[in-house]
Amino acid sequence: MKHHLIAHDSFREILKNREEIKTAFIKQEKGLLEKKEKLLKNKDLSKWGYLGENGQREIEGKLDKLVQHKEAAFTYMIQNESKEIELQREQLAFYTNQCFEETRRIGRDDGKLLIDHFI
Q: Does the CA dihedral 33-34-35-36 come out positive or negative?
């Protein structure tokens, strides 16, 4: 029975970490999207934070199209912060997978304990 409690404690810890990462991720992603919305409205390419070889000049000719296609424009904006958000998304996916695997493991172990108990 002690193993059973330890397994649930490890799951709770993983789940707690996942929830903390999820909360931070959602907050930062929302903030980033709000920043990008403002940048799109202002149309000031010098503040977009594009990291391409030719910088601002590279996207000046595309500005009219980008203003009409928000998702495409967002890929050119605040690229360093966008990369950080992507890393957080990957970390959240990792913890989500860990929770799933831990749930499956506990389910297998608990099922085996129940079977052994009734046999």
A: positive
